[in-house]
Amino acid sequence: MRLDKYLCDGLGITRKQATKLLKSGDVTLDGAKVKSGAVKVSSQSEVMWEDRAIVLRGPRYLMMNKPTGFVCSHEDGFNHTVFVLLDEVRYDDLHFAGRLDVDTTGLLLITDDGKWSHRITSPKHKCDKTYRVWLADPVQEEYANAFQQGILLRNEKEPTLPAELEIISDNEVLLTIHEGKYHQVKRMFAALGNRVEALHRERIGQIVLDETLEPGEYRDLSPQEIESIFSK
Ligand code: URA
Q: In terms of domains, do 29 and 88 share one?
């Protein structure tokens, strides 16, 4: 993680304030004075401001606009993992609150708070997720009813929970589901004889993908966004 970001996270200040603090010459990294915010801080580094040790604040909650071609895992022999896009320390502590497939884009939540992510991923909490779906074949009128009734996916014992479909155009829909089975959206459309060509997650609970984030960019969640998951 860059030193200026570390100072922002550790002291709760803006990037501009961190740059000013560094310019003052009162910040040291492992005992040496540093003025550049671009210097990398590792998990073993000791960052001091005057005689005060700066440690990172509590749990982390991040929102990324996931690009295609990156996998949601710590290691992958073939594709890049999403972690290469993060400028954070202690990567190993972070996990995904609902993975996306390698070719799926959009809202990805990353955290080190297991209780928080459990509220998103556990079927018990029925946290809704909205996906924009582009289909190979035109959407059929009966889809909405089929999703509302629940669909029995291959290799599953129980049908999917009722899901809501909004038709945007012949080949584009918004689908809201309340659980997160493996490849769920693709399998739901496959069960109806269609194929998902592209998939983009736009919303999880009340957290909506920030449109200012370019693919691959991420930001901290606001306190309201974090809290919205607990207060659901
Ligand atoms: N459903 C899918 O099929 N893939 C995803 O990435 C997310 C939901």
A: no
Residue bearing the CA closest to ligand 1, atom 3 = 183
Cβ of 163 less than 6 Å from ligand 1: no
CB contact at 8 A, 198 and 208: no
CB 64 within 8 A of CB 111: no
DSSP assignments along 123-161, one per residue:
GGG---EEEEEEESSPPPTHHHHHHHH----TT-SSPPP
* Distance between CA atoms of residues 79 and 152, nearest Å: 31
Residues spanned by the domain of 199: 61-228
The pLDDT assigned to 90 comes to 74
- pTM for this prediction: 0.82
Ligand 1, atom nearest to 103 Cα: 6
pLDDT digits (tens, 9 = 90+) for 121-155: 998 898 999 999 999 999 999 999 999 999 999 88
Q: What angle do CA 223, 227, 230 make, to 5 degrees?
A: 160
